[in-house]
From TrEMBL:
Signal peptide: none annotated. Pfam families: AIRC. Residues 117-246 form the PurE domain. GO terms for molecular function: hydrolase activity. This is Nickel pincer cofactor biosynthesis protein LarB. It comes from the Bacteria. GO terms for biological process: 'de novo' IMP biosynthetic process. SUPFAM superfamilies: N5-CAIR mutase (phosphoribosylaminoimidazole carboxylase, PurE).
Length: 247
């Protein structure tokens, strides 16, 4: 039950004040010792808290999911191990997993499309897809129409130009690239909408684990480009969703 439902039940005399106070004891946050769950984040930001699974034990992830599930929150987990998902699936049969992007999803409420337009996710190469899919599924789970245009990097610029109709239909574009990271600059020069650049760690030695792509994107001569951290598909999907929902 979310706060709005709780207040509606009190208003309609379906729930007494003492019972409502008991339900509110874990608001705005719930301290589990190893995690402090922010149950009010959806009220403040429009989205529930997202679980970053990497570095967390299976026990801690399951504990967080249990508390969020009790609140009927939609649950999104990033960087989730397949072995962890298998354990979650045994307890929560409705859990879904996108293996390439390592995205975990448990949908307890209908996902309402509040986006004003479409988000398009573009990649330089096929090797960038795991990060791009993290952005894709994040934006989709947060209530947006999302389309993918993959493997259209600058090494064969005609591939990108052949997708101009899709790119021009976007309200926000997420451009994901490794190697030298030139794709966002090219895309930024073709469109009149915000471009969110995502550098990936894909590349040979002088790529420095994505640092070269990051610096290229930060130094882009095209206007209207913002840059998130290396391999941060989630951050790009989240930001794109916020932009897409602006009036």
């Amino acid at each position: 039950m979310d706060l709005r439902e709780l207040l509606e039940e009190v208003k309609n005399n379906k729930l007494d004040i003492d019972s409502a106070l008991d339900k509110l004891k874990d608001f705005p946050s719930e301290d589990l010792g190893y995690a402090n769950i922010d149950h009010h984040r959806q009220i403040r930001n429009g989205y529930p808290e997202v679980i970053y699974c990497e570095g967390k034990s299976d026990e801690h992830i399951l504990g967080i999911i249990d508390k969020m599930n009790q609140k009927k929150s939609n649950i999104l987990g990033t960087r989730c191990r397949k072995e962890t998902y298998d354990k979650i699936k045994e307890i929560y049969p409705d859990a879904e997993y996108e293996e390439l992007s390592k995205i975990l999803k448990i949908q307890n409420q209908d996902i309402i499309n509040l986006g004003k337009g479409k988000i398009v996710v573009v990649t330089g190469g096929t090797s960038d897809i795991p990060v791009a899919d993290e952005a894709y599924y994040t934006a989709q789970f947060l209530g947006n129409k999302v389309e993918r245009v993959y493997d259209v990097g600058v090494a064969g610029i005609h591939r990108l130009l052949n997708k101009r109709d899709i790119i021009n239909s976007a309200r926000v574009i997420i451009a994901v690239a490794g190697m030298e990271g030139a794709l966002p600059s090219v895309v930024g020069g073709l469109v009149d909408v915000p471009v969110i650049a995502v550098p990936t760690s894909v590349g040979y030695g002088a790529n420095f684990g994505g640092l070269s792509a990051l610096l290229t994107m930060l130094n882009s001569c095209a206007s209207g480009i913002s840059v998130v951290n290396i391999d941060n598909g989630f951050g790009a999907g989240y930001l794109a969703s916020m932009i897409n929902k602006l009036d």
